[in-house]
Every structure is written in C-alpha cells, then in structure tokens.
Specification:
Helices cover 30% and strands 29% of the residues. It is an alpha/beta fold and 310 residues long. The strands form four sheets. Strands 1-4-3-2-5-8 form a six-stranded parallel β-sheet, with helices on both faces. A six-stranded antiparallel β-barrel has the order 11-12-15-14-13-16. It has a two-stranded antiparallel ribbon with strand order 6-7. The chain is elongated. The longest helix is centred in the C-terminal third of the chain and has 18 residues.
Length: 310
C-alpha cells in the first residue's frame, strides 16, 4: 500500500478526524535506529488495535526556525526522509509546517489542536520529546494530563541500552568521515542524492572517469577524502570510489566537489539523478607530485574498494 502524505501549512486546516490512528512524532532527521524503534512501536500498537499507523514530522527544521538559521544541513532532507519512512510501512505521514504560529502554541493547545484533532488514539514518543511554546510540554505532561484519553508510549533511544542515539551524534560521525560508525547508528549506509553534471573529464583521460554530482539538497557531506561505497544508477547498484574534495593535483577547485568513479560502468548519465552510498573511508585527499603517482594511488584505492565491498 502506498503511504499517504498530508502536508498541513496552517493549524486551521486540521479538522477533527473521526478515524483513529496510532502515531509517533518528531523531526526524524536520519531515521536512525532510535527513530526506527519509535516506528516499530507505532506499527506494533496500530496492528494490535487494528487501526492505521501515522508519523508526524515537521518542515522546515524546528531548530532552524527557532534559532533563525538558514541553509542548515541534514542527514535526510524531506524527500529522502519520506522515502525511508515509507520503506518501514507507515500508513500516513503528516508534515506540519513549522512556523511562528505552531511554535507559539501552548502544550494544551498543541495536544487539542494537533494531536487530538488528527484522531490520535495512542502516541509514541522518545523520552526527550518536548513540544509547545519553548518546549514546555514533555512526556510527563502528556502522561499526567492526557494519559486517560491518549495513552503515551515512551521508547528508549539507547543503542544497546548504553549510548543515546541522536541526529547530532549521527551527523558528527558523517562530518568526521567515520562512515562505519554512521552505519551502526542508521542501520544502513549513509546516502546522498544528486544530478550528474558535465565536468572537465580529466578523470577519463587518465583511465578513471568520474560522475560529477551536483548534490541538490541540503545533505550533510562527509569529511574531505576518498571513500568506498555503492552508487545507485537507474535502479541498479554498483561498487564505487568517491572523492570529496578540491582535486589538489590537477583541475583544482575552490568549492568542494563530489566525484564518483563507478566500477564496471561505462554509460553516459549526464543529467540523471544518482544516489551515492558511503560504506567506509579509504584515505585523506592528497596532493601528488605527478599524474603517474595519482594513477598508482587510484589503482590502489580501487583494489581496496573491490576487496572490501561485498
């Protein structure tokens, strides 16, 4: 079944629903293992009650609105987030526009005008969930004031009951190039998406053609360096070597670029959207004294990628 997506730009759009649902709520950047635990609990309760499952999220990022920040990077921008959520079988996603009006609601108004109006019979949240003006509403508030009409299930967001899983922690593993740690927190390889654009074709001249990615959304980029991973092109997955950096040996750039050498692939894909997964970091980006040194290193990078990618 296709997941229903409902965008709500004003609170006044929410009319009291007669149909009941079990819902989880949060920003869900990354859909990491903690978020997945919320989703699994939501589906478990919806199946037990025989009613649909719902996920409520926000757009734009509440943190960026409250702190008046623009161009904030994310692990899963909205389009990617929705794709990942759908893969877990949620029946409906509600996307609430986060603005001054929504952030000004008191905790009680948020419960009545949003949660109860959306027909939520049971709510699933993380232990640190906060809502309402200046985050005055929390788990204890929900249980004390609304537990009788809307039972709230609180999910442990600890990895192996030890380390708290949060989007900030995941982001730090990405920007530090620790993609194997990222995988442990997400339960999957980190992925970005972009459009293949025409480049200087220097890689082709030395036997290592690359797809130059214009990353079209506000994805967090891994630390500058060379990585091994998988590229999804036209629905098929290929092993690949990815360079994030400035090409210091030749064709030097002022802005960071993302270039992918897709192994065992020779099709022309300019203008197409590809998805790049990062499995592990091979090395730092280096400046070589000659093209021959660069070629030797890239051959070694390819050997490492082929030997270690499944």
């Amino acid at each position: 079944m296709v997941m229903k997506k409902t965008m709500i730009t004003q609170i006044a759009q929410i009319n009291l629903r007669q149909n009941r649902s079990v819902a989880c709520i949060g920003f869900f950047d990354g859909i990491h293992l903690g978020h997945q635990a919320l989703i699994h609990k939501t589906k478990e309760r919806s199946e037990a009650l025989g009613i649909p499952s719902m996920l409520i999220t926000f757009n734009p990022d509440p943190w960026s609105v409250i702190h008046k920040k623009s161009s904030v990077k994310h692990i899963t921008p909205l389009k990617t987030k929705l794709e990942v959520i759908e893969s877990y079988g949620i029946d409906e996603v509600i996307i609430l526009k986060f603005d001054q009006n929504l952030s000004s609601l008191s905790p009680d108004d948020f419960v009545f005008k949003v949660l109860i109006s959306l027909g939520i019979q049971e709510l699933v949240v993380g232990e640190d969930f906060k809502f309402g003006f200046r985050g005055k509403g929390n788990v204890n508030f929900l249980k004390e004031h609304y537990g009788a009409i809307m039972p709230t299930h609180v999910v442990d967001l600890l990895l192996d009951h030890k380390i708290k899983i949060g989007s900030t922690t995941v982001t730090q593993t990405i920007v530090n190039g620790k993609l194997e740690e990222t995988h442990k927190l997400l339960g999957r390889d980190y992925r970005i998406s972009g459009i293949v654009v025409d480049g200087a074709k220097q890689g082709r001249r030395i036997g290592f053609p690359t797809a130059n990615m214009h990353v079209y959304d506000e994805f967090v980029l891994p630390k500058v360096g060379v990585y091994a991973g998988y590229t999804i092109v036209r629905g098929k997955k290929y092993k690949s070597i990815i360079n994030i950096g400035y090409n210091p040996t030749f064709n030097t750039r002022e802005k960071v670029s993302v270039e992918t050498h897709i192994l065992d692939f020779n099709k022309v894909i300019y203008g197409e959207v590809i998805h790049q997964e990062f499995t592990f970091r091979i090395r730092d980006e280096l400046k070589f004294d000659s093209i021959d040194e660069l070629i030797d290193q890239m051959k070694d990078d390819e050997r490492i990628a082929r030997e270690n990618l499944k």
